[in-house]
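Q: What structure does this chain adopt?
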Amino acid sequence: MAREQPLPERVALLGIRHHGPGSARMVAAALAAVRPEVVLIEGPPEGDALVPHVPHLTPPVALLLHDEAEPARAAFWPFAEFSPEWRALTWAHANGVPVRFFDLPAAATLGEEPESDTARAALDPLGTLAEAAGFDDPERWWEDVVEHHTDPRDLAEAVAEAMGALREEFADQVDARTLRREAAMRQNVRQALKDVAGPIAVVAGAWHVPALRTLPPASVDAAALKGLPRKKVSGTWVPWSHGRLAASSGYGAGVDSPGWYAHLWESAERGDAVPRWFAKACAVLRDEDLPASTASAVEAVRLADALAAMRGRPSPGLSEVMEASLAVLCGGDATPLRLVHERLVVGERLGEVGDDVPTSPLAADLARLQRRLRLPASADVRPIRLDLRKDNERERSKLLRRLGVLDVPWGRPDTTRTLGTFAEAWQLQWKPEFAVALAVAARHGTTVEAAARTVLVARAAAATRVVDAAEVLSLAVGCEIPEAVAAARRALDRCAAAATDALELLAALPDLAKTVRYGSVRGTDPELLRVALHGLLARGAVGLPLACRGVDEDTAERAVRAVDGADDAVRLAADDEHRDTWRRALKSLVAMPDAHGLPTGRATRLLWETGELDSDEVATRLHRAVSLTAGATAFVAGFLRGSAALLTADARLFGVVDDWLTGLSGADFAAALPLLRRAVSEFSPAERRMLGDRVRGTAAGGGGGGGVGGAAGGWDEDFAGRLVGHVRELLAADA
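A:
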């Protein structure tokens, strides 16, 4: 029987830590010394065809591979400037040496289930080595041993020996996927040994090095790889970001501090990493109008050096730097320190790919539009304001909306800013995973407009509810795609004709009202849409009272949302005749004796705010509602929905609600609290403070109505204390 053979000495195994600048320096030094004829790098062989584009890339970037039949089945292989694999790629290009990725093919891994968390926890080699060395944090151990090592060339053998010992210890816990990967790696090493007679450099995760130091019979590895899935895989290079390199992003091979590692890499030759770091931190704080002087930076450097010396470290690491930042630059305040962490420790640097890198026609069209509209992608959050009367800014709005339809939410509408009919506010942030969404959307069309048209027309055809058709219509108008507008309009007519649920009809009104209100800005005739709005409103208004009778809590909540949305739509886009129709529907709901209290209370509030009911009428209805045990909480909760300003300004209504609350027992108040908390959560912080002040004023003055807490002629101090506690809990619930 054939035995394992030792790996030929001409093969240099370079065990690395993914995205570690110390490992990157080790790889660069080792390659310069070995001068290999071929470099093998951990990664899928399908990426070999994309290696020639490396000179046109600015990291961080990622190799993106996807199944051509199902583009959503995709995976990324990220590279940063300080990644050892990236240093190997750039060294090979600079020296004219061929590069091969030698891991398991992506065709065999796309769409497979990830390994279990238990397996990952059991096979954490860095954690095990760190624990053996007396460190509680593997990141810090690696930083001490590797990232600050002055001569990285002698590290490869030491790392290999340490990993070999770990592999022997955990031999029975190595998962099947890792074994298949290592079989593929060995097969590719064998092929390289056949192809070249000179030195070979192998760059792979340190955990795999022990499995590559010997070669079993080729038939053993071939058997392990038998029956692997076969797929047609396509790929490209895409921009990546430091934020997506971070372990907190969910990236399995991520590091906690990519921004810090980038800084270590860039400052390595100068030897001034720590002073430059504090200079950057001061700049970040000053950009936010926070004090950060040069003198404080100098003092922070001294403190970081002192901390490192006390702990026996070769030089300050990230923990010392951050502790010094907190103490000196941030004055002990963790809030500005979080800003430093986000901007510098993690960072949001976004890479770039050249124009010659292959991409889909859809992605190419997006790049063309970004250039033409002067709207570059950025990993940072960027607020913009668009004036739709200007052609270029209207085109920007169309692009952002069309991308949203394609599940590429590069821009999100800023709903906190109301700018009027002709203006929009957006928050832009490009995320690397949008590249996958573009690959998936490429099947819908070769341009952004064509793909969005295909998606909208298909959604219109599939719509079965009025609210769905109205949403598609709103999107189509915003995207300014006439064919999609027509398809959505037909879908709306079809769904409306079949609808019998009044709440469903009313739920469609908000989207339709916005479309009517702003359709003229988008080149759509609003009057054609207003007819549909009025038709849905008329039918929904007639059925509203009956739709609120004898319903459960979930349906009552749905009814409140429908009432609120319809009321907003009426205010925005309905004519006087249909506004009257809506008010009559609300009055019918309020008058219906067995309607659920939640929508009834909300309708009462809306009629009061518009002057259809005066305070005396509302007080009478409130008295009647709270005098009944059943439904009292729901009615009051519905009435409280919305703004607190009018309620606190009307002494009589406030007194009715106040008397009801003070009359509840502790058990009844606890039962009522969830509904009341939900109502109060809609109040602004200022309104909650106003309401709290009014409650305290009422308590101090002896109450807004009769006796409180059951004392006919006096003030019950114990009950008052409990009441104030209840109110504080209510007001603080969502503060």
